[in-house]
Amino acid sequence: MFTTTGRRRGALYVSWFLFLLYFIFLKTRNSDIRSADAVPYDEYECGCPRFGPSLRSDVLSLCSEWSSSRGGGQKVVAYSVYGDVTKKEVNRQYYSEIEERAKDVASHYEGWVMRLYHNISRSHNNSDLLCVLYCRYPHLDLCLVTHLYPPPPQDTRKEGHNEHDSMRGRISLHQNTKASYEKRLVGKMWRFLPMADPLVSEFLVRDLDSSILPREVAAVEQWRANSTALVHLMRDHPSHNGLILAGMWGGSRERGAANLTSMLHAMTRWPPRDIWDYDQMLLKRVVWPEVLDSVLAHDSYFCANPHFQSRHRAVPFPTRRDGRLFVGWGRTRADERKTIIDCPVQCRPRNHLDWRLC
Q1: C-alpha to C-alpha distance for 143 and 68, rounded to whole angstroms
Q2: Nearest alpha-carbon partner for 203 in 105, 95, 314
Q3: Is the pLDDT confidence value at 162 over 80?
Q4: d(CA 337, CA 211)
Q5: Helix (H) or strand (E) holding 291
Q6: Phi, psi (deg, nearest 5) at residue 234
Q7: CB 113 within 8 A of CB 141
Q8: Is the distance from CB of 259 to CB of 349 less than 8 angstroms?
Q9: Could you tell me if 219 and 321 are in contact, meaning their C-beta atoms sit under 8 angstroms apart?
Q10: Residue 32 reports pLDDT greater than 80
Q11: What predicted TM-score, i.e. pTM, was given to this entire model?
């Protein structure tokens, strides 16, 4: 009896071993097939090509050919960078923060892509830094805005088609139009381009000099999981007195791709102006009126202020403030923590009215 049982066990072990070998063979074979079909992408000539499927579709991303090869459903955290890296303040506040944000995105938004929108040609000295980071972080995509164009006017007015429908999935990487997005949008607004990207499902617009805090991530997850709002925004400091802060908002194209595309298209009709908060001015004029019925705002200070209210009441942040840190804080903004004050009772979670620094 013992011998028979032992033989059965031995046969079972052999069967499982053979099945495992067969599974490994299939995985290896499929991997080889995928590798054979992959093509290299190194548009910025960094010397570290990435391999992906060849582009067989006319639906391209508003970033790069490599970004297009990632396919649809991309979740993107978008940043802009511009200016002369040799200037001490520009380097300290922006260029030196790129790697920190790449680490932040990898840690806090697993599976998301970090897009860096810029206008730095490969021949420029600043490009070496971008290449080092591009080669180091596979989730970092470089988006050269001088190569990104809006659709020609005729594509948005085809007879018998709604403007929104005709634009959906038709914005391409290299359209023969007069001006690229570099000329149509101020640098701070290049990071808005995922609004109209047919391969993006969700996007967050952020500032390079702002760290990603767990408090922010919790608010974003609450928006994604417990809300149907098209747009998400945050205000977490007494100085956050804008309707939509340009580096603290995001949107879901799954919930309204045509609307978001139309809003970006509308912003390009405004002539670029060298004004400090021009990006927030256009968010106020173009986006805010369109999302009053579909916005979720996490607000620590202005939740009861009629000026900041949409048609839905702002909600408290789901987590308690860590000391005097705030969403939008960064190491170059250390002094701003000193001006954090007690938040109004109306802006605290109902079950945590004792959170003075809510």
Answers
A1: 11
A2: 105
A3: no
A4: 13
A5: helix 288-291
A6: -135, 145
A7: yes
A8: no
A9: no
A10: no
A11: 0.84
Q: What are phi and psi of 201, to 5 degrees?
A: -100, -40
The domain spans of the chain are 12-352
Cα–Cα distance measured from residue 244 to residue 291, given in angstroms and rounded to the nearest whole number: 11
pLDDT for residue 168 is more than 60: no
In terms of Cα–Cα distance, which of 194, 210, 218 is closest to 141? 194
Q: What is the DSSP string of 34-96?
A: HHHHEEEE-TT--S--EEEE----S---SS-HHHHHT-S-EEEEEEE--S-TTSHHHHHHTGG
Domain 12-352 falls under CATH 3.90.550.10? yes
Q: Cβ(347)–Cβ(300) under 8 Å?
A: yes
98 and 129 in contact (C-beta within 8 Å)? yes
What pLDDT, in 10s, does the model give residues 90-133? 888 899 999 999 999 999 999 999 999 999 999 988 899 999 99
Contact 298, 235 (CB under 8 A): yes
Q: At what angle do helices 98-108 and 214-226 cross, to 10 degrees?
A: 50
